[in-house]
Amino acid sequence: MAMASTIKVVLGSIAFGFFWVLAVFPAVPFLPIGRTAGALLGAMLMVVFRVISPDEAYEAIDLHILGLLFGTMVVSVYLERADMFKYLGKLLTWKSRGGKDLLFRVCLVSAISSALFTNDTCCVVLTEFVMKIARQNNLPPQPFLLALASSSNIGSAATPIGNPQNLVIAVQSKISFEKFLFGILPSMLLGVLVNAAILLCYFWKLLSIERDQEVEAEAGDLVVENEVNSHRFSPATMSYASSVNSQDFSTVIDAITPSSLVNAEPLRTIAIVDGLELSVGVSQRREEISSARRYIKTTSRSRTSHAGEANSLPNSEARDPPNENWKRSLWKICVYLVTIGMLVALLLGLNMSWTAVTAALALVVLDFKDARPCLEKVSYSLLIFFCGMFIAVDGFNKTGIPSTLWEAVERYSHIDSTGGIALLSVVILVLSNVASNVPTVLLLGSRVAASAASISASEEARAWLILAWVSTVAGNLSLLGSAANLIVCEQARRAQFYSYNLSFWSHLKFGVPSTIIVTAIASSAGDIELVHFLLYLI
């Protein structure tokens, strides 16, 4: 594609520059309006500057991608209501054999769940689970937060519904769900194993801390079940549903926080976090746990007696617990069956967008309630962001700049050679961290596919899969590389009981080597036989 006129190139670059700055740095001091408004601003400037016409702007919006994104978000909301993510949290601690085993479980569970329920949803739901489990095992949260974020990104590469850029690739390439899954699955499995091995090497000493078994057993009975059962999901925030013991639980946590115990005698080290020892008086801890238990029992009896009085009233609206439990169990089974049906339909090659929307509406009907509370949890700002991004990227493509830059490297990046794959991977890796992964896919997708199609049809599909894999793994390079990283960082910082600040540099020290190694090893996923051989060796 030839370069457009100078005026069009300059104005298009300015409009795209506004979009890029606000997408990468949503809180810049001179215009802190956020990513969604920034995408709309970039789109509006493309039309106002006449880089594209209003009709072309509407045509740039891909309704197939928006429908698929909306459907998967609604399904995720109903899966949370059906306690799917609570069971995932319990799976992390079931018969755990220590810190290293727990770290590997976090990597595996987050990778699989992100492939099925998107990486952002996985990180929103599991971050606090992971932090609490780490604290209860007297382990520092940093390795587990890094494991959650990085493995979620790697795992999400396996399916078209795992992350937004895969949605774009699946729709544009018309690769079936089955072909997409089995094309990247070997790389994903290898990538998760390699990433887990790197994490274990980095944090081997920290994960070798011995637990205080006696105190842990007492505290575990008190905390774990209540924390897991009280967890609730929202796409934007984390909240905790009110329950019988919610206020009691807060009182318990306040009573046994480390800050209230540092002066106790005798002292025993229970954790080492970033080189700092946290010590607690064992005898005082036991007394406070016992007091907390007595407090809960007393309050629970009081509330039970009040509940009994209420149920004895003639006009009481109290429900029959066994009947309600049976109905809820049946509803949960229906939610799981609908979700499995959606995955089967996707594997059979049915239209992905309409399949996801149909599954979402089936869950709305089965719920037999006003759907507004569930639909309000859908991230409509993300859908609007995608609309603005489609228009901004389409306008920038029409300036001719992306095509000119691609022509400069195309001759060296053919995927029929190892050097070509390596150069293409570097270009995708850098551009994904500079311009974000979804815009990178929109800018490079058709060009990379056209270049590969000139070799053969099979190479075209392979090029799309390499783009999906590398653009997704590139998100692990830095904290700003993907939304999943930022979600984990923010959720950890705002955790209700055990907050932790995952800094940019602490993530970068792990992210750079992990991303390079995982990309280098599993990008030989272009050679499926090599990947199977490496998996056999492992």
Topology (elements, then pairings):
Layout lengths: L5 H19 L9 H15 L5 H7 L2 H19 L2 H10 L5 H19 L1 H18 L5 H15 L7 H10 L3 H26 L10 H17 L1 E3 L4 E3 L5 H11 L10 E7 L2 E6 H31 L8 H27 L4 H16 L4 H4 L4 H19 L2 H10 L7 H18 L1 H17 L3 H17 L9 H11 L10 H19 L5 H10 L1
Helix pairs in contact: 1-2, 1-17, 2-17, 3-17, 4-9, 4-14, 4-15, 5-6, 5-7, 6-7, 6-8, 6-10, 7-8, 7-11, 7-22, 8-10, 8-22, 9-20, 9-21, 10-23, 10-24, 11-13, 12-13, 14-15, 18-20, 19-20, 19-21, 20-21
End-to-end distance: 46 Å
Given helix and strand content, the structural type is mainly alpha
* Low-confidence spans: 211-286, 299-319, 528-538
Major sheet description: 2 strands, antiparallel
Tell me the fraction of residues in β-strands, as a range: under 5%
Helix and strand sequence: HHHHHHHHHHHEEHEEHHHHHHHHHHHH
Rounded Rg? 25 Å
Strand order of the largest sheet: 1-2
From the spread of the alpha carbons, the general shape counts as globular
Rounded average pLDDT: 76
* Approximate helicity band: over 70%
Transmembrane segments: 7-27, 33-53, 60-79, 181-204, 333-366, 378-396, 421-444, 464-488
Membrane topology: Multi-pass membrane protein
Subcellular location: Cell membrane
Region (Disordered): 297-323
